[in-house]
Amino acid sequence: DFILLGFSDKPYLEKTLFWVILIFYCLTITGNLVIILISLKDPKLHSPMYYFLSNLSLLDLCFTSSCVPQMLVHFWGPEKTISYTGCAIQLYVFLWLGATECILLVIMAVDRCVAVCHPLQYTTLMHPKICLQLAIFAWGTGLIQSLIQSPATLQLPFCSHQRVDDIVCEVPALIQVSSADTVSNEIQMSIASIILLVVPLIIILSSYIAIAKAVLRIKLTSGKKKAFGTCTSHLLVVSLFYGTVTAVYLQPKSRYAHEQGKFLTLFYTVVTPTLNPLIYTLRNKEVKGSLIRL
Questions:
Q1: What DSSP string describes 75-134?
Q2: Which of 207, 214, 223, 291 is the most core-located residue (most Cβ within 10 A)?
């Protein structure tokens, strides 16, 4: 078994975090289920944007459920252990869904770019069949990434080093406790981080630069406001997710054990999935209208 240390040196903090995480988890389940439901039920939301949004909501539901229940158990009582099998399953699922979200956010940015920059060709370019293929590509790429990196991490010898200084089974934390030379694993993690974090972030920023240029050419103030409103919500989601994940996976190995890393992990596993439906709902008239009709 592995022992996930988490915040075991601060019992008072663990009890506070238990209630905070429980509230956020309930909000995550409710908010994301509502978005999936209205995307399926309301014909007005049968568009590529809401198709990808419902995929993101499903992803967030699975992502939080892969780690939050275990966090709650560890924060509530003295039990901090997780079996090797449990840790392996969590690592596979965690990497799969995390990598999928990286790709899905890129697809959503490109979708908004096409909608704003090429409105007349939008229905042709973002045909339902193409949207389905893009969704499969996102989920498939995440799965491939997990099937490559997870076995490489789990094959490391851990010997008597069972104390993992983290709140979940993550690659950086497991690399740190291994008794073997982990240079190749660190290189693999860096390459994966560049492919799944840096490159997608460049594509997303490029898409929004193109959107900004197109919006500035719109003469109607109402048109500008609507375009900026729709895109700002997505950009906010991107900033929250990429900002925290990049800080954890691109920081040096020697600094990973610090408390900052644990709080950042807590943020993108618990807080971000809760904020996603709130950001899209509160900043989107179509979603609010659909909620009222429902």
A1: HHSS--EE-HHHHHHHHHHHHHHHHHHHHHHHHHHHHHHHHHH-GGGHHHHT-HHHHHHH
A2: 207
